[in-house]
Amino acid sequence: MQSKILKLLARPCYKPANIPELLQQLRLPPNQQQELQRALAGLLAEGRVVRTKGNRHILAAEADLVPGVIQITRGGRGFVQPDEPGRPEIGIPENATATAIHGDRVLVRLDVKPQGLRKSAAPGEASGAVVRVLERARSRFVGTLHRGKKFLHVTPDDPRLPSAIYVPEPRDVGRPARIGDKVVVEILGWEERGVPPEGEVIEVLGAPDEEGVDMLSVLRHYDLPLHFPKPVLAEASAIARSRPDNQPAPEERAGRVDCRAHPVITIDPDDAKDFDDAICVQRQDGDQWRLWVHIADVSHYVRPGSALDTEARRRGNSTYLVDRVIPMLPEALSNELCSLKPGLDRLTKCVEFVLGGDGKVVSARFYPAVIHSRRRFSYQEAFACIQRAPRDSLERMLHDAHTLAQRVRKLRFANGSLDLDFPENKIRLDAQGRVLRIERMENDASHQLIEEFMLLANEAVAGRLLETNRPAVHRIHEPPKEKRLNDYREEVLSHGVRCGNLTHRPEVQKLLAKLNTLPIGQALKIGFLKSLMRARYSTEPLGHYGLAKKKYTHFTSPIRRYADLVVHRALFEKIRLQNSEAKKIADHISTTERNSADAERDSRDVKLHAYLNAQIESGEPHTYRALVTDVRNFGFFVDVPDLGMSGLVPLSAIPDDFFLFDPARGHLVGRRTRRVIRLGDEMPVQIHKVDSASKRVDFKPADAPAQKHGCGKPQPSKPGGHGAERGRQDRGPRGKGGAKDKPQRRGGKNRRAGS
């Protein structure tokens, strides 16, 4: 019925009609009026159809109304990703978001330049205002309970919710609520932006400084499940019990290519438990190479429509918080039967490549296989092996794999891939959940080895899906808007760094290479990341800007990403996914990915904030090396690599001078000392103030030279593919410390999501 309605409304000769008129135009009998009304109600709820005066109906597009999902920055500005594939995002000024909350599906009225849009907006840039919230992404929030003059209210932890929530006296929810407690509040109604929403306290978490409340707040805020439903656990246990030796049965190996004689290895972080990829490399005659990329065959165990599948789809991905993992699948599968452990037979989906001496793919085959991993390397072990002469046949293969990976890597950058790599930090906690140390993770040769092979597999699988016309989900990273690139170019030029037209990829590559050699380069590189779009999932193969690939998907992490599981089924199973269903999945897992990324960031922040507050209270704050990344009239922002965080140095925190801002040169000048503070400067800083409520950290200049407190020896971790969001090329849910298939940016198998 809905398709009939949409076809009618799309006719050039259609005039807005009410229900009786629609009934007549569709040639439906009177007894189908209720069916028509239900179908219309669904289309209205989805924002595809709107009502005009006289209860007449037209397509939303005809009224310049566009449905989509809104993302709201911490500054309050919104960006709506339209439901229609390929349509550019729509900018929403802060005063035009109405009652929309981050992640809501909304209906936006297009406007070339609505009131309140930033002055820098380009003429004709897609922009608009929210006219209706179609679907709430969430109704529950975590915040702090306060008592005002007349009302109790909850101040949300999430700064993207711009208003306190009025609540009545909390009812009995298991423990008494005290003023200042962290609570979970459910919004019951919010009709106007100027009027605070009303809600109800449904859970009391406890005092902010009570042990465990910080992480519990993160779990509740992002609605992360601590436990699997009983039917899911029962299903996973039944699968495990049916294989008492923790290996597939002989009949499960039948019909698969037997690769158990191959010297297959895995390379993962030292604390990883779920090994979802393995490799094998052989030199061939004629300067060719054969590469096997084996990926855990999760789809063999997790069948469509099962309890396991339903829960995995709901979660969308594993979430890697600083102190725990919220897995997509129960450990009986994720850490055991599906994990490619050494010394055990395991089922895989394999991509077998033949590559030329230059690293170019000659051919690729796809098939189910069975393997028997010979050894599990940590990244540290693999890197050490690469740096010395090989001691056995496995280490010789590792050397060969390194040689091949570097050739593939060189070819990738020659084809236009962008170098957006940044080191990341891994927080180590003690038994009480306090920060013990912060380790630097570099993108060394061992990470690059795995990264390049995973990228190859993802691209090859995407190509195969398109060749066979099989509906699936693709990983896309759309090009940045020309306006953003031009604005960024002007900023680069203002700092005396020459660059060409950044809408041409070779010029972007030249600039990024130049920035790697300049003292100011790191700060400017961060600015470039902020101009990029966010990577996401789509049914449309729109390509990946950061990786310079026309076709790309996620295939290599099915233990922790539902997208990869969908792709496995699309490539190997006979069951075809419908386009409409694929789109629902793509939209959903894009949302869960963003939710996980935000949760991971917040879990990290709460531990760091406690760590930094303890320094202030001790009266002996550590000194850190900092890089100036932005200069304003009220202070300057710094990036602190040893903490993996940014913050503000307010001018009020510099007591020995009065600074004036020079807008023409973009720097601060001390009136007394004539000291100049500009973009790219390095300086020692200390913690000045921590405001956990607003998620803000202020620094102050330190008198002593910078020291690397809290940081141990840099530890490698799998590079990661977070999804290309503003400031990050492709941010995804943190995996065990990095993304093996990322588009060159911050590392760690946490970020194995990648590109």
Mean pLDDT: 86
CATH topology of the domain at 623-701: OB fold (Dihydrolipoamide Acetyltransferase, E2P)
Radius of gyration: 27 Å
CATH 2nd-level architecture of the domain at 623-701 = Beta Barrel
Structural class: alpha+beta
The N- to C-terminal Cα distance equals: 39 Å
* CATH H-level homologous superfamily name of the domain at 623-701: Nucleic acid-binding proteins
Tell me the β content.
25-35%
Main sheet specs: 5 strands, antiparallel
Overall body shape: globular
Q: Could you give the count of β-strands?
A: 35
Uncertain stretches: 114-124, 704-739, 741-754
Estimate percent helicity: 25-40%
Number of helices: 16
Strands in their spatial order, largest beta sheet: 5-4-3-6-7
Can you identify the CATH class of the domain at 623-701?
A: Mainly Beta
Structural overview:
This protein is α+β, with helices and mostly antiparallel strands and 755 residues long. Among the domains are: 2-61, Arc Repressor Mutant, subunit A; 64-135, Beta Barrel (OB fold (Dihydrolipoamide Acetyltransferase, E2P)), CATH 2.40.50; 140-210, OB fold (Dihydrolipoamide Acetyltransferase, E2P), CATH 2.40.50.640; 623-701, OB fold (Dihydrolipoamide Acetyltransferase, E2P), CATH 2.40.50.140. Helix content is 28%, strand content 26%. The protein contains 16 helices and 35 strands. The strands form eleven sheets. It has a five-stranded antiparallel β-sheet with strand order 5-4-3-6-7, with no helix packed on it. Strand 27 and strand 28 (645-650) form a beta hairpin. It is globular, with a radius of gyration of 27 Å. Residues 114-124, 704-739 and 741-754 have low confidence and may be disordered.
